[in-house]
Design a protein that fits this description.
The chain is mainly alpha-helical. It has one domain. The chain has 13 helices and 2 strands; from the N terminus they run αααβαααααααααβα. Helix 1 crosses helix 11 and helix 3 packs across helix 4.
């Protein structure tokens, strides 16, 4: 996953001018890495933390979590959507902090080019990902680039590292990559979270799903479900 993030981070970087504000450019750039795969990676981390939060109240009911992965799958997205939105805001702010207005403008403009589009498409091929990406930034020689790009596009790619945006990226890529991961993941575990709520319809569904929650017997679990249902009705 770090490798996938690296390619997406790099491919949002290079440059011509745009008329957008730095904030708008940064938001556009982050759109390039805010893929479904990246979002779901963050969501998976958040839901694992939520499952851990439920361990105590579930134990207090003489129940046990026997399949934490299935438990996480049954949690509604509404529990993690606010943190995903906050993570995105922090990643936008990270770009504004690391790059000046001209660099952001160049990065955003490059993201609109066919070079960016072709390299993103190439990066999705699992057969070449190990060769394609070197963390913390992409490093392809001309021979490898020529498999995906026209000669003119190869020149555009190589010129990137000779320009201000490219030099800034090369200098700050490690900070950017680590910062994205910290903004998206670590903050969730550091900040206080509200207590796990048992009296919810999704908890009833979790308790009713076989193989997720262990109980002394079916009658015990049935009674717990009945009690929760009476609390929320």
């Amino acid at each position: 996953m770090l490798r996938k993030i690296a390619i997406l981070l790099f491919l949002t970087l290079s440059g011509h001018q745009s008329i957008a504000s730095p904030q708008e450019d940064a938001q556009f750039i982050v759109d390039g890495i805010w893929t479904e795969e990246f979002r779901e990676m963050l969501r998976a981390n958040y839901t694992r933390a939520i499952v851990s939060d439920y361990a105590k109240p579930i134990t207090e009911l003489n129940l046990t979590i026997i399949d934490p992965d299935k438990f996480a799958d049954l949690l509604p997205d509404s529990l993690t959507d606010p943190q995903l939105a906050l993570a995105r805001e922090k990643i936008v702010a990270l770009h504004i902090r690391l790059f000046n207005a001209e660099q952001l403008a160049g990065i955003a403009e490059f993201q609109r080019t066919t070079v960016w589009e072709k390299l993103v498409n190439a990066s999705s091929d699992p057969s070449i990902q190990d060769e394609f990406i070197v963390w913390p930034y992409l490093s392809l020689d001309a021979a490898r680039l020529s498999q995906y790009l026209t000669p003119a596009e190869v020149q555009s790619y190589e010129t990137f590292f000779e320009e201000d945006a490219g030099k800034a990226f090369d200098d700050k890529s490690t900070s950017m990559g680590i910062g994205v991961l910290l903004a998206g993941i670590v903050d969730w575990f550091d900040k206080p979270r509200t207590a796990a709520e048992m009296n919810t319809t999704y908890m009833i569904k979790i308790l009713e799903t076989d193989g997720v929650i262990g109980s002394p017997n079916r009658i015990w679990r049935r009674d717990v479900i009945a009690q929760i249902r009476s609390e929320i009705e």
